[in-house]
Specification:
Layout: E1 9-16, H1 19-26, H2 29-47, E2 51-56, E3 59-64, H3 67-81, E4 88-95, E5 98-100, E6 103-105, H4 107-117, E7 124-127, H5 128-134, E8 139-145, E9 154-159, H6 186-197, E10 203-207, H7 214-224, E11 233-237, H8 247-255, H9 261-265, E12 270-275, H10 284-293, E13 297-303, E14 312-316, H11 322-336, H12 346-352, H13 357-365, H14 372-378, H15 382-385, H16 400-409, H17 413-419, H18 431-438, H19 442-450, E15 455-457, E16 460-462, H20 465-477, H21 481-499, H22 511-514, H23 518-530, H24 534-541, H25 545-551, H26 553-567, H27 572-588, H28 592-609, H29 612-626, H30 631-648, H31 651-667, H32 671-687, H33 691-707, H34 711-727, H35 731-748, H36 751-765, H37 773-784, H38 789-800, H39 803-811
Parallel strand pairs: 4-7, 10-13, 10-14, 11-12, 12-13
Antiparallel strand pairs: 1-3, 1-4, 2-3, 5-6, 7-9, 8-9, 15-16
Helix pairs in contact: 2-3, 6-7, 11-12, 11-13, 18-21, 21-23, 23-24, 24-26, 25-26, 25-27, 26-27, 27-28, 28-29, 29-30, 29-31, 30-31, 31-32, 31-33, 32-33, 33-34, 33-35, 34-35, 35-36, 35-37, 36-38, 36-39
């Protein structure tokens, strides 16, 4: 599979002029004409070493390593189309984009598309950067033009001397020139434009938190619809306006109106863009009257809360998605330090600042004086670092803290009292949790949602991390932090006990309750440890035993290690239980010898306490950790554990001990016996809802069936494994099952599918450690990886898939 060109790249965008008109004119012949157009252009691109990056509808996006090749391809393509009915506009621009697994990232891609968009059918336009590489021969200077990315004018050149109409650059508008190009937001821009193209939309309000990019998105959308408004698009900044009575005069000033504004606008078809309306929201009725009097008037606003006009439609502006966020940071960093190259710290930086455009811009500015590693380290306290925006920006937009403080200061005292305690929540919260911890009710939360400080999705509320940090600052400043943290710990400790994933409890039957609260559970633990409440922290860790095993065994082992190092003299039963939990996490993260030692210590303590069920549980675990050292002893422990559990009537314990015997059979080479024991154990686990153990047994069963060459049965078992692992968010088991799926595909001769699953696992590895998989990787690589074009092609595709999409593919039948 060819790789995207890197380094200095020339992009070529094409688009058909008047495709809708052609469809009506050509009728059934349009499909043939379109096919011939594609054939001709592709032939020209291939002849000059072009790489077809993407096609959308009737448009092409092609990359060239050399600018001269791109110009030659454009020339040949236009000549090939000259005799036909289709006319294509083309735009070329040269830059140094970032190449990621998802494709090209950076402003150069957008600039090339913008250049193509202002041309006419049959016309080829070049940027100054491309012109500088190919020279002026055969090019016509069209002068400077303001493109719809709203940055400084671009000098454009035309290939050939043919006369065309004036370029479609901006006409009637006072939209402000932007200091930087518009990067990312394709999805959001498309959705906003769809709303603006709808004649029924008279008022559209873009809402969102401070720094989320509302202003830039509104400006870009307005630039895109200039041609739709006969009498122009007009920008009205309101950040300096303090009284609602000043809004109408500000609009009049922007339009150059003399006398009554409604008379000046009259029947004209125009769009007003009102920026930063939240501070003058009481002027909304005046805008409603203006709309009623002026039927051709439309409004596009940015605000942190709605105007509540009858005609209003809302578009909440989200943070950037990851790929866009990285591209945005890269563009801003290169503006601050030309030649900047991204590294492994850039994505964590973007995640730490919630992918907020303002925060990304402020963080990127720091590359002038700091490495990305230093920026990442300092972002552990993000608000103090995120300062130093452009001097000509409003003061509240020069620091992220200022942007958030602006929203906070507009709240009523009661809303501020509700907002501050929400800072203790990590990863969001439910209404019930807000009532218990913060004393908030649904009306107060709704008010904060409407003011864009709190986000709401499904049944959960959340704060962006930067806003959460500000809330904690205010909570501490008011002296309320410790009381609120105590209530938070009590609430999530009660939640953990109610679910109880320990061996004594449900052992993971109700994972769906804990999974959304992972970050809150971590925050509760961290708060208790910081306060020196080690016994309470240990008592919270125990009911989370299987939670750590499934979601993060490495983290669970680390947390148990830190707790027990500080614990001193724990009550004997709590210590015995803690040692058992710690041993389990250690085993799944590769600490086999220490896990065995802790199991023996825990077993001795429970025997001294006379707790027969606890003894049987730890016997099974000690049997697991004994298999490598003393298989005979392991069998004795599994059989004794099984005898006790059967006598006590514990089907869950019986499932565990039976599975232990299955593992032992596999290590001794008794594959058929192992498969049978795994199958029995999985069925028992299913009967009692012990999903995590059922997943492990199905995984063992799959491997035994593969070794027995019973591939159809193995495929059924691995699909069942993947489906169940997904329900409890078991990352480690999902990875293991996907590897087994790759192995099955390899044995069936489907090398491309084997490569796809293996590539997806490699991509998931890049996110962080995956427990035992780190120790078993080479063993499975020898069984799965093969040197072939089909495998490598699938591997490349797999690395670009999300892990969830790879699992979906593995679950596909056939």
């Amino acid at each position: 599979m060819r790789e995207l060109p890197g380094g200095t790249v020339t992009f070529l965008f094409t688009d058909i002029e008047g495709s809708t008109r052609l469809l009506h004119e050509l009728g059934d012949g349009y499909a043939d004409a379109l096919s011939e157009h594609r054939r001709a252009l592709r032939a020209a691109f291939v002849a000059h070493s072009g790489f077809e990056v993407d096609t959308q509808g009737d448009a092409f996006f092609v990359a060239f390593s050399r600018a001269r090749d791109a110009v030659a391809a454009a020339c040949d393509g236009q000549e090939a189309l000259a005799a036909g009915p289709i006319r294509v506009r083309m735009g070329l621009h040269t830059g140094e984009p970032l190449v990621t697994e998802e494709g090209y990232v950076g402003i150069d891609v957008h600039r090339a598309a913008r250049i193509a968009a202002v041309g006419h059918g049959g016309q080829v336009l070049l940027s100054q950067a491309t012109h500088d590489l190919v020279g002026s021969d055969g090019l016509r200077d069209l002068g400077e033009h303001r493109l719809k990315d709203l940055t400084a004018p671009e000098r454009l050149w035309q290939l050939g001397e043919t006369d065309f109409p004036p370029l479609r650059s901006l006409n009637q508008s006072n939209l402000p020139v932007q200091p930087t190009p518009f990067v990312g937001r394709e999805k959001e821009l498309g959705e906003v434009l769809a709303l603006l193209h709808d004649p029924a939309t008279r008022v559209l309000t873009l809402t969102g938190a401070g720094g989320s990019g509302k202003t830039r998105l509104a400006a870009q959308a307005a630039a895109e619809v200039v041609d739709d408004h006969e009498h122009g698009v007009w920008w009205v900044p309101l950040q300096a306006v303090r009284g609602p009575d000043r809004v109408i005069p500000e609009i009049g000033s922007a339009l150059g109106a003399r006398g009554e504004l409604r008379e000046h606008i009259g029947e004209r078809r125009m769009l007003l863009v009102l920026d930063n309306f939240e501070q003058v929201v009481d002027a909304a009725p005046q805008l409603g009257e203006l709309l009623s009097a002026c039927p051709g008037l439309r409004l596009l606003l940015t605000s942190r809360e709605l105007l509540r006009l009858a005609a209003e439609r809302e578009y909440p502006v989200p943070p950037l998605v990851e790929q866009e966020s990285v591209g945005f940071f890269l563009a801003r960093a290169r503006a601050a330090r030309p030649g900047f190259e991204p590294d492994e710290h850039v994505l964590p930086i973007c995640r730490r600042v919630d992918h907020l455009p303002l925060a990304l811009e402020l963080a990127a500015a720091r590359v002038r004086a700091l490495t990305t590693a230093q920026i990442r380290e300092r972002l552990e306290r993000s608000l103090p670092l995120l300062t130093g925006g452009a001097r000509d920006a409003p003061e509240r937009q020069r620091t992220l803290r200022g942007a958030i403080a602006w929203s906070y200061e507009l709240l009523s005292p009661e809303e501020q009292r509700t907002f501050r305690p929400l800072g203790v929540f990590a990863g969001g919260w439910t209404l019930e949790a807000a009532e218990a911890v913060a004393g908030a009710d649904v009306d107060a939360l709704q008010s904060l949602v409407e003011k864009s400080l709190v986000r709401y999705a499904g049944d959960r509320y959340a704060l962006l991390e930067t806003i959460r940090e500000f809330a904690l600052e205010q909570l501490e400043a008011e002296g309320e932090l410790e009381d609120v943290r105590r209530r938070h710990f009590d609430a999530y400790s009660a939640l953990a006990r109610s679910v109880d994933t320990s061996a004594e409890g449900d052992y993971g039957r109700h994972f769906e309750v804990l999974l959304p609260e992972q970050d809150n559970l971590r925050a509760a633990l961290d708060g208790a440890v910081a306060a020196g409440d080690v016994v309470e922290a240990t008592e919270l860790m125990v009911p989370l035993e299987n939670f750590w095993v499934v979601t993060a065994p490495f983290e669970g082992a680390r947390r148990w290690s830190e707790l027990l190092a500080q614990a001193g003299d724990l009550p004997e039963r709590l210590r015995a239980t803690a040692l058992r939990c710690y041993a389990g996490a250690l085993w799944l993260s590769g600490g086999y010898e220490e896990s065995h030692r802790l199991n023996l210590e825990s077993l001795a303590l429970f025997r001294a306490l006379g707790d027969e069920e606890a003894v049987a549980i730890v016997m099974h675990r000690t049997g697991i950790s004994s298999m490598r050292l003393d298989p005979v002893k392991a069998r004795e422990l599994f059989q004794e554990s099984l005898r006790i559990h059967r006598r006590l009537g514990s089907l869950r314990g019986e499932a565990e001990a039976t599975g232990g015997l299955g593992y032992l059979a596999m290590t001794e080479g008794n594959l058929a016996e192992g498969a049978e024991l795994f199958s029995q154990s999985a069925e028992m686990a299913h009967e009692v809802g012990f999903t995590w153990w059922e997943v492990g047994m199905l995984q063992g069963l799959t491997e035994a069936l593969i070794e027995l060459d019973r591939l159809d049965e193995a495929e059924l078992a691995v699909r069942r494994t993947l489906g169940l692992a997904r329900t409890i968010d078991d990352r480690q088991s999902s990875v293991g099952a996907l590897v087994l799926s790759a192995w099955i595909a390899r044995l069936r001769g489907d090398e491309e599918r084997a490569g796809l699953h293996w590539g997806a696992v490699e991509a998931e590895e890049a996110r962080g450690p995956i427990g035992q998989w780190e120790l078993e990787r080479e063993e499975y690589a020898a069984k799965v990886v093969i040197e072939s074009d089909a495998f490598e092609g699938g591997r490349h595709r797999g690395r670009r898939l999300s892990f969830a999409a790879a699992i979906d593919e593995a679950l596909r039948v056939g």
